[in-house]
Every structure is written in C-alpha cells, then in structure tokens.
Amino acid sequence: MTEYKKVHQRYTHTEGHTVISYTENGTSIITAGSDSLVRLFGPKRDIDIVTLSDLSYSVSAVAAHKGKFIAGTEDGTVALFGYPSKEFEKFITRCTLPVRCVQFSPNGLKIAIASDELSIKFVGIQDICDVVTLKGHSKSVKSLSFDPNGEFLVSTGCEGDIRVWHVRTENDDEPVCVKILSGILPSTESESPLLGTVAWHPDGSCFAVPGKNNGSWKTLYTLKDIHTNNVSILAWSPNGYYLASAALDCHLVVWEATGKRGTVIHQKHVAMISGLAWHPTENTLAFTDVIGQMVEWDNILPLESNKSLRHPAERITLTPREVGKLFDDDGTESLPAAAQRSRADSRAEGPMDHDEYSDLDDFVVDDDGAGYVAKRKDENKKSALLTTGTTYGASTIVLQPPFQSGATPKRTDRRYLAFNLLGIVSSIDHGTHSTVSVDFHDRGSHRNYYFTDHYNYSMAYLGERGAMYAVESSAGLSKGNDEDKNGTGRNPSVLFYRPYESWTSNSEWLVHLPPGEDVRAIALNEKTAIAATSKDFIRFFSLSGVQTFLFALPGIVTISARGEIALFIYHLGPGLGDSQNFVYLLYNTETHERVQEGRLPVSNKATLAWVGFSETGLPAVYDSAGIISILHRHRHPHHAVWIPVFDAQAVSRQQGKNNDRYWAVGLMGEQLMCVVLKV
C-alpha cells in the first residue's frame, strides 16, 4: 500500500505557475516559479537546498542534461547553468515574448525553445549564434519533445496543432515539418493553464498528447474515463511502462501504458499540478503545483504488495514488433517506416522525400482524458482496475465548519452574534424569543437599538450601511412564521436586513430561503448583502432585498466584505497532513470579477479565528495559533502574497504573560484591536 508518510511536501515558490525537472542522474531536483527563483534540492531534501536568484522574471520552463540545466523566463530570456557547480554560465538567447518550453536535444548540443513568438528556436550551446528558426504554428508554441534519437521534434501550439519536425537531416539541411496533426488539442491562449504537453516515449516508438481522437490517424492506445477536465501535463516513466497525467481537475493519474490494468494510481491533489517528473532510477514521482508546493511521492507504485507491477525505472528491451504489441492488441507492428530505419541506423541516399513520412500517422498515443470524457457506460469496469488503497493527500484533521468572525457560542442564554470595529451585536435567549441589542462604538454616527427577535437569529454582520441577521431552518413554527407555506412543519432559513437610518430609501427586508437550504455565512459591503448556503450557493442581494446574482462555491468557511469587495474563504478539499486546505477568493460584487484567488496558508493544526479587512482595506486573517497575515498587493492580479505581521504567542511570551490569549476584533493602522482573554 502506498502510504501518506511516503509523501514529502514543501513550499518552494510563491503562488503561480511552477516547473520541475530531475538532473539526469536523479541526485537533485530543479524547481522554478513565478517568484523568478530557481531552486535545487539535493538528496538531504530540506537541508541540501540551493537557491539561484540570477533571473529577474517569472521562470516558466526548466530542463536538465549531463552537467547542465537551462531555464526560460517570461521576459524571453533563456539562461544556462552548470551542474553540480550550480553557477550561472551564460544567456543562450533572448526571445521578444515569454518562453513556454525549453528542451535539450538528446546529444546535449542544441536547445529547442518554444515561446509566444509563433516559432521555435533551435540554438547551439557552444555557438549561440548557430540559430535555426522553425516556423509553422499560427499561435504561441506551448510544448516540445525530442524523440530519444534526436531525429524528430514534436511541438504543440495554442491553435491546437501538433507538428512533427525532422531535425536530424542529411547534409545538415534545415529542419522540416513532416506532419501536422490538427483537431486533437483544444485551442487555447498562451496564458492558459492547459500546457498541451507532448511526451515522447523513451524508446522513441510513439508520443503521448492530451487530447481527443479526431479519427484521422491511427490510435495506438487510448487512456480515458478518469480525468473529468482537460489534461494539462504528461510524463512517461523512465522505462515507458507507465504514463503519469495531471489535469485541471487537480487529479493525478498513473496509467499502465499497456492498458491491461488501466489506472495504477489515481489521487486528487490540493491544487492544479503544473510540473511533473519521474525520478530517473527510483520509484518516485515528483510534481509542483500552482500554489507553490513541491511534492515527492516515494514508492508511488506499491511494488511490494503487488508483485505484478514493474519498477518504473526497470529497463525493458523490446523489439519493434513487441512495442507494437505493447500498444496495439492486434499485435501489428506500430513503428512507422521512418522510425524503423532510424532505429536500424539506415540512411536514405539523396534528398528526403516528404511522402516517406506518411506513416507518421501512427506516431501518436492519444490520452483521451482531456476534457472529452463521457460517463462510463458500465460502472462495473471500476472493479477491474487495480486499486492500491492509496492515502496520499488524505488527512485526519477535522475540517473547520462555517463560522462568523466576531461571534461566540451561547453561554447560558447569552452570546455575541457580531463584534467588529463598528460595534457589537448581542443576543439574549428568552426561550420563546430573543432580544437582540446593537451597540455602536461611535454613538455619534449611529444610535444604539434593540428589538425582539422571534426567529432566534444565530448570526449577524455589521456592515457599512446596515446590519444583516440570519438563522438556519429549525423544527416547529416560530411566532414570526405562523403560516407553514411549504407544508414541511419547519421554520425556513431566514435572512433579515435592517438599515442604520430609518429615513434611508432602502428599508428593512426579510427573505425566506427555499426548503432544505440553510444559511451558513453572511456578509455586507457598501451595496450588497451576501449569503452562503448549504446548497453551496453564494446569493447576492441588493440593499433593497432583491436577489441580483448567484453562483456556486462549495466548502465555504466564512465571508467578509468591505467597499465593493467580498472575501470568501472555503475548503479546496480534505486537509493535507496537519493543515487545513483553505483557499481565498477576492470577488468584486459590482462587476462580478475574480480580483484575486489562491491558497490561504494557516499554521499547522490551526483553524481560522477571524477574517476581515484592516481599516485601510487590506484583507487579513487571524488563526488559532495567533498568527495575523495580511494580503499584500491584493489589487494586482496574480501578484498578491500573504505576509505574517503578528505572532500573538510570541508577544505573550515576551511580556511574560504566557496564558494570555487575544480575541481579534479588527486592525487599525498598525494595531490589533482585540479582547485579551485570561486563560
């Protein structure tokens, strides 16, 4: 069984696109990301780490070859580094647009570079003036892969075309495109997370691409029915016996390429995987994701418990006919004639004839899990797949339930429903009804008030122009809901808004949610009332009580709002190790645009205690371990980072008050407004 303890994870880069590669002997892992850093991790893992800061822009591609590795960036730079010296050696070239992929030729003498320039650069390492440009794609080039003998190069473009180039020609002629495969990959933009990765099989007999079978060429084997969204990246095991794939659905799948077992590993990760690499000699798969994590999955294949599985680095020697059998059940030979001649090192005399490559129609393995998946017609097929009982990504940590910042549990008959920088909402339960009191810190701006609450509201939110109250559905009928309109015998879940000023054009209103739908969290900003419900709906209401918008967001934990912005915190999935798996979303409630989103880091074994905005509008969170973090550069898409600014436990220790606890109310300037609790 593959155990979770075999998975070694760490945060290596800031949020954004990350890439990964092993050095050729597997002694180090190279990662890079949007923080412009290149990191090398040696055998000692968390100790043996080297960080290279020679590049100034986001690193979008890395590749390694004997004693060297290269990195391409979004400013178009391609840099060469030495290994194991880990020293910058020189710039190979400079593209005018972002680099998307870099690959060494198998002999290590040239580098192929894909970028948004619509062409592929073929550059010599020793003589960087030795440049050949391959033109043909009509949009940005996303991915490249050499066949192991260095005779062919495959490229994928954003227009959806796959091109096969003959790059090792007689008499050093310029490379030529010998095959174009269209209608397989979806058309994308250069910034799309769909990487269109193409991966050549280690024996050179075929290559794999994520896409659909367009029927115009022969499919050697189709791997499907697992991914539920577009496949983005692929990687063959060193011996070509297994194919790993990752998709926009955050699932990682390891397939046995023969198709006899189908999936060997199938596991959902906490975020979308953007880099994938097999260890050259070990039973290990490493990958990076868009929240900056690197994960090494040791002993990913349960070789001890399942003797029929091959080690992913165990070399397999096959004849061309056996290769055909590996992928084609009828046993017919699948290697194109051109490829067979290459394996036999036979050479045609005279100029190359393009018709000679017509057999390249057989050169592709179609991974049909890329967003074109139909539901299984026979669910019993699942029982035929080899399952390993993997627990990777699983956690025993209890997911934090939804909560309202500033609220407290009921003690005897009293509780706080809300407590923030504007004021306090408290409730006293009298059994048949409650009394809700609202006290403002600044009595010159708003008058305090109280009212009789026949619904027994369980949550409240003090906003900029009014207060919002809500309660879940309950058994029986309350005094405020004498008529059982739905015939359920239950009080429906209720939303109630009350403005601060009685003369305002927006008077108070009350909304009953549909039967079976309960409020989980609420918030108010300048113009919008927001409610998250048990149906995973986010409902938007105007301050006059009209629902204006709705979208789905599963796993909500809490909401805060200010101005025209709402901050949603939700669970992406099960916890990972000792950490909650939180994601944040900054959302403009007027334009309905996602301003910022990403992983929300909290302390190990901690939950969120408070979520809100500072006096100046900075999103901020406070966890149960006493750490306050603010979201820096939150108005700049894809550039925001969470910065820890306060450690309550450290402050308590410095003051010699180890038993003090701080209950957050809000942030004003550089001060934490809180209630000091004596434990």
Automatic annotation (TrEMBL):
SUPFAM superfamilies in UniProt: WD40 repeat-like
A Gene Ontology cellular-component term: nuclear replication fork
The protein, known as: WD40-repeat-containing domain protein
Domain WDHD1 first WD40: 10-294
GO biological process: DNA repair; DNA-templated DNA replication; mitotic cell cycle
Pfam families for the chain: Mcl1_mid (PF12341), WD40_WDHD1_1st (PF24817)
Chain positions covered by the region annotation Disordered: 327-359
UniProt GO MF annotations: chromatin binding
Gene3D superfamilies documented for this protein: YVTN repeat-like/Quinoprotein amine dehydrogenase
Keywords: WD repeat
Biased composition (Basic and acidic residues): 342-357
Every WDHD1/CFT4 second beta-propeller domain range: 402-678
WD repeats: 134-175, 224-256
